[in-house]
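Subject: two folds for Thursday's group meeting

Dear M.,

Sorry for the delay on this. The cluster queue was jammed most of the week, so I only got both jobs back this morning. I'm pasting them in the order they finished. Each block is the input sequence followed by the predicted structure tokens. Could you check whether the formatting survives your parser before we put anything on slides? The first protein is the one we discussed after the seminar.
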Amino acid sequence: MELLGPVFKPIGFSMYTSSLVNACRTWRKKPKQLEVRAVNHKFRKTFRPLIPILLISIVASTGFCKPMDKGFNPTAYVNPFIGTAAHGHTFPGATIPFGMVQLSPDNGTDGWDWCSGYNYADTTIIGFSHTHLSGTGIGDLCDIRFMPAILTLNSETDTTKLLDLHSVISHNEERAEPGYYSVMLKSFNIKVELTATERAGFQKYIFPQSDNAVVVLNLGHALNWDRTTEAYLKIVNDSTIVGYRFSTGWAKDQRVYFAARFSRPFGSSLFYVDSSLVRSRKDVRGRYVIGAFKFRTNADETIYVKTGISSASIDGAMKDLDTEIPGWNFSKVREAALGMWRKELSKIRVETPDSSLKATFYTALYHTMMAPNIFSDVDGYFKGADGKIHRAVGYKQYTVFSLWDTFRAEHPLFTDTYLPTKRANPSRARWNTLTMTGASLRSQNFLTRKPTISIS
């Protein structure tokens, strides 16, 4: 086992990050009782003294760590599909460490096993939305959902095609790696690829030859506990659309603004608003809003859609989009996302001849970085818990703080390994949330103790 420095090679190693951090905390109390060993893949908790400290604490607090080994690639061991079945509640889509965007498929099924919007038992996809929760016991988010399709939309009776839009998939035609996801929509013979930056999602659609290729944006449909309260969609020009989706659910007043650009102009468009089709309009507002944008495509023609999101404003979403994805090089964005994951995952190095143990460890480590999520735009603006727009100056605002036992293990992991205080400070973000809502500090147990994440 190696952590960018001294090498330890146990017989085998498989442990989730909470166990690693708890081992560090125990070592500090009882340094002679610690040893990490694996015997026949059945593990006993006797710990060798130096291993836990080298695993977690030394990486951030000392200068003895060597640069990342260019030949070491932990992303090869990450399987984003782990946790998506049964009661795992994870999603397989594209995101970067602690990113605002989680661009991932939605099955369209309500139920506790679909808290993340996706379950591996399902073989239907209704679209690809830009926000998702991972590992939670309540479902929410799934905002700003796009879906490519082959549809004829000529009459009022075609509204059912929009409301019931979905495709069958095969898991044999799905692929996922850190920062990337792809699937074949068998019902339409369209291949979809997804990648992401911090605040923007990038979609690649490979269409068959058709006069009825469409890209549908659904701002009205909601999953599980979430409900749309107001949606707005505006056509800026023949390749740019903007709008927002307000909703209530686990988050009582959630607001997601967006700006999206197509790689080529759409030929025509129509809207579905609440209960009817609307044509010849540039903008619509309602509780259930759908936009359909029509193209003529040649065989294997690619159409890209890139979308920035914001909690503050449409202008903020546009700035996020144009700053983070200024061009149309999908491969470059995908490679950058994978590079971010490699950098973060490489901070802990495991050596074992058993690749399945590495997959267990690095996938678990990958899932620790699904949240908290960046919440401030590239210019620092964000919607505060008080409903007002604030600006983060000199730090990044974060959201999606569980605090349900995460302070025991995950937060020390962040403190020691992943979140340097000068670049990103979730504790400050949490402090801002408390002061905006006027919460009593005595009621926040983690604040009455020594903070696990430093406050700058």
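Second protein, same layout:
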Amino acid sequence: MVSLEKNRWIPFALLLAAFATALAAASEIDVPCGRASACRDAMDYRLWNLPVAVWGCLFDSALLFLWACRRRFFLYALSAGMGIEIYLLHTLYRAGLFCPLCILHAILLAVVLLGLVPRNSGLPNAATALAACTLFLLADPLGSPPPVLYAAAEYSSPTVALVGGVPITLSQLDGAAAGDIFRLERQIHDIRRRKLEEIIEGIVVTKEAKKRHISPEELYRTVVQGVSPSQEELDFYVAANRDYWDGPYRHEEELRNQLRLQLVLEKREQAWKDFVRSLYDKYGVSITLPGPSSPTVVVDTREGIAVGPPDAPVTVVEFSDYQCPVCREAHGAVQELMEETRGQVQWVFMDYPLKRHTQARKAAEAARCAADQGRFLDYRNALYAAPGPDALTPQGLLNTAASLGLNPTAFRRCLESGRHARTVEENLQEARAWGIDAIPAFVVNGRLLMGFPGKETLAGEIAKARSAGATRIARASR
């Protein structure tokens, strides 16, 4: 029997540890760490929807209670806590976090345990600690870390401000304002590009017209002559733009005529642009105007659906729309890349339903309802593989769930209640905050790629991110 009458300093040490943990969690104090926000991020881990800091306080309080009551299983509770503490440290190590508070707490428990357990009879306590640690490692209730927000590796960045001795660097400032900066840079680039193309067009058209011995105006009429939409193209155009036509019309035929005129103008404009670009090679045109530099984007991924190891060196965030044809094309490449980079990349899927895609928002909610039943990827793949638009109707979404063997009652209740509507909207606002206005959009360790760049380009960005490494920076919460 171990005497618990000695070492009366232990209750005070446990009380101090509980107080320090509660204070750090409540006020988000940053104690000196190897990384800027490691302690705060460690406090953000949750077990059964409660922060681990709260569990630490409860555990310390329970130990104090057992000490006061002189219960014989005090040492067994302490041993189990030591095992759980080892699991927690292992989880933080996987996530690349160094939290002095957690380490100090673990050292305290170890000192108390070693000081109380007799040297020749500690096997039961060691077995208890090992069992608790093994159980938590197998269950891994903390397996998904708090949202990891990655940016391209920044090895040096000037300090632009100090707040209580904590530096704010230029890279962090640019990350916070990346959306606004990128939006302005794109506007500047678009203005330059349009003006450059106008200048080039004037030069090559003049040369081509002179070569044909006609005026530039006659050359234009020659190129666009006979360009008109087919009946099938017109029907598709009318169906796609009927709800967005702002002009007045009284009859269906009048609407069709107005839309047909608009379509003719668009097709002629495109025909002329294609013709002008066809002259680039002929007259040795080479455009070297650089595009806007991609910003370092720090996406708040708390409302995303993560697939893959949370400690992977590369995180790819995708914003997409289930009704978007380009997103459908990109999905096939993403599937292949997920297989090729298995275990090396964590993919985080987020929603960006366009307003004109009237079925996309409900489809995004349905995919999240499927995620509630652990079948997100299967449902996502089924939506993108669907042959026609009927799959995205309310009944079509239910039929897809049934075909995958999901619980039909739970799925219908989830979909009809709009449980995930707010989450989808938050995804959309997060993307817009960073200036994302083209989908699909990918964020590879903080590097933004708007539109589908192609499988090879996306694979190259992932490879580049793996070789460059990633760094955690301050969590963005909008």
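Two things I noticed about the second structure. The first helix runs from residue 9 to 27. Residues 27-37, 143-155, 470-478 have pLDDT under 50 and may be disordered.

Cheers,
T.
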